[in-house]
Each structure stands twice: as C-alpha cells, then as structure tokens.
Specification:
The protein has one domain. Helices cover 81% and strands 0% of the residues. With 232 residues, the chain is an all-alpha fold.
C-alpha cells in the first residue's frame, strides 16, 4: 500500500505530460476558426487580438512545458520574475520582428527547436550538463535565446494567414499584450500547483521522474516536427 502511494504522483504526472505531448504540434498553431477571423478582418481590432494572444499562450502546450521547466526549481519570486521576463522579452521581440519583416523560416524547424528548448530545460533541471560538461551553462542566456525561437515560431504561424497591413502594428502589439496576459495566467496556475506539490515530502523524489517525462515530451515534439520537415 505504501509503495502505491509513493509512485501514484509521478505516474499521474507522466500520463498527463505524455497526453499533452500528443497535442503539442496542434497547440502551437492557430485554430481554424481563429485563422479565418484573422484573414477576414482589417483595421485596428485591439480586444480581439488581445484575446487571440492570450488564448494562444494558455493553449500553447510547448510554451507551458518550457515555463514549467523554468520554474521547477525556482522558489523566490524575484528569480521567477527574472527568468519569465527574459522569456517574455525574447518571445515578444522575434514575434513582432518576424511578422513585420516577413521572416521566411520553416515552421517545422522552428517548432523542433522549441521542442529542443523543453529537452534542454529538463536536462538542466536534472543536472546533466554539470555532469557531462563539467560546468553549468548560463541558464538566463539560454532562456532568452529559446524565447527568441518561441516567438519566431508564433510569427511563422501568423505569416501563414496573410494578416492585413491595415492596423498591423497596433494589432500585433495587442496580440503581444494578450500573450503576456496569458503567460501570467498560466504561470500563476503552474506556481499554485507547484507550491502545493513542493509541500509534499516526496517532491524531490518525484522531481527526477517529472523532468524525465518533460524531456520525453520535448523529444516527441522534435521527432514530430522533423518528420513533417522531411516529408513536407
């Protein structure tokens, strides 16, 4: 009976993350209904674009898995704020620049790199780089760099829908505001769940399993996207 209680936590987490990983490729894009709306409207539409940005973030499982990895071992609000701000700066800048300058980048390759960001953060949490390389890579720099790729991934999706030039700047700024609001919402929920989990005596024992599963989800995304790149 004791053994069943001990392993129920990580097993449930593994199942949840594996189910989420099956939807990673779909979650990063824009739904068909939103796609049609984006393609049809023109002019300044701040509230709808704020909504679309927030919706993208709270349903973007690739972003959420990366955020989960970032805050996994962060306990102080100051540290969390620094890392999340770096991710937001990276995410925001390449999203806006990518749309405005029409950067033509393969969405499959970008999403594969986003999957790599999840793998990286899981390995970082597991202390793998210290063991393998003998030193710890700068995690703040890595968070910023991967933030660039997360934003570029969204830019590639938006460019597919030939958004109207009329009102482009305010609409994209509104979309970005929505993304950040969605990120704060998702992060708050993650931190609430993490704070409850961390109070459990078995948290550190389960941490290894959680990050191995997180890494597996990242590899699934990489494999899916590279398959799409090679076949299409």
């Amino acid at each position: 009976m004791h053994s069943r209680k001990r392993f129920s936590g990580p097993v449930c987490l593994a199942l949840i993350l594996l189910l989420v990983s099956q939807s990673l490729a779909l979650a990063h894009g824009v739904t068909e209904g939103d796609k049609g709306y984006i393609m049809e409207i023109s002019g300044i539409n701040l509230i709808p674009f704020i909504y679309l940005g927030a919706k993208h973030m709270v349903t973007g499982y690739d972003h959420l898995l990366f955020l989960f990895g970032i805050v996994f071992f962060l306990y102080r609000l100051k540290e969390i704020s620094i890392y999340v701000s770096l991710f937001a700066v990276g995410h925001s800048s390449t999203m806006l620049l990518g749309v405005f300058f029409d950067w033509n980048v393969s969405a499959y390759l970008i999403d594969a790199i986003i999957g790599l960001s999840v793998v990286y953060k899981a390995l970082d949490n597991l202390g793998a780089f210290q063991r393998w390389l003998g030193f710890q890579p700068n995690t703040k720099t890595a968070t910023l760099i991967f933030g660039f790729f997360h934003g570029l991934g969204l830019a590639t999706k938006i460019l597919e829908y030939d958004i109207a030039e009329d009102g482009l700047l305010p609409n994209m700024l509104a979309f970005n505001v929505g993304v950040e609001l969605g990120q704060l919402t998702a992060l708050s929920l993650i931190l609430i769940a993490m704070s409850y989990w961390r109070r459990k005596p078995a948290f550190l024992g389960h941490a290894y399993t959680a990050n191995v599963v997180l890494m597996g989800a990242g590899f699934l995304l990489i494999g899916y996207q590279m398959t799409g790149f090679l076949l299409f």
